[in-house]
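This is your field. Have a critical look at both lines of this record:
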Amino acid sequence: MEVETLKRLAVMGAHGSQISLSSSVLATWLGTSPQTAARRLALLEEQGYLVRKVTSSGQRVRITEKGWQRLQVEYQEYRRVFEGERIAVVRGKVTAGLGEGQYYISREGYRIQFLQSLGFVPFPGTLNIKLDEPFVPLSWQAIKIEGFQDEGRTFGGCKCYKIRVRGIEAAIVRPERSSYPENLVEVIAPVSLREALGLVNGDEVKATLE
């Protein structure tokens, strides 16, 4: 029920600014008891979806950026339902990564699976794109890459989504365990996309899902 509560808070104006709110008022909006409404607020705060400040007259709440992104994911999922295959393009801007892509992409356990599942061995590095909207693919588009152990270390699995970036075959890689926000994606390709397309941080880029 986290999304329903977030949606109600957004409708009440809690995105971008704090609003005064009592558990009884929220309960009326949600059709629950004040106790249930209070628990939901506490859970959302614990999950980082909102911030609360207790005052002498009650409390003030505001949806965080993480909470807003969760609502955007929900919105994109509804667009998938009502618009279907028309949503086949993702757009964003090239951004700097953490510099870890080369290490992980170069692991043999990943490279063999990339070749088998994607049809290419990726360039040792990733192109990081901050999307205009959260990346919400359809489940059937996912290509599963299994985790493995190497040199006593466990490497987790991931899901890949085939795309084309200005005609070059590529794939979005989403680790199964990641702290990356929903609107930040890593892209692998058989060549360095930065060099092949002359991309620098801040450049706008469009990718087509296949």
